[in-house]
Write a structure and sequence with these properties.
single chain; mainly beta; three-stranded antiparallel β-sheet; two-stranded antiparallel sheet
Length: about 60
């Protein structure tokens, strides 16, 4: 499970109902809820998402 920071609880916690998403700039992120207070938690992951189509061969 991914660990993120809850700004409402002011503590690091495991993200409940975590879903991996791709942001507009192509980076991966995890979005879910705080298990204690239910606030939305968001953690940006390193690196770019892999493209869905392979690059054209020359």
């Amino acid at each position: 499970m991914a660990e993120g920071y809850c700004v409402k609880c002011k503590a690091k916690k495991d993200i409940a109902d975590a879903v991996e998403e791709v942001m507009k700039n192509g980076r991966k992120a995890i979005k879910g809820k705080c298990p204690t207070c239910g606030t939305v938690m968001f953690k940006i992951l390193g690196g770019k998402a892999t493209p869905t189509t392979p690059p054209p061969a020359n």
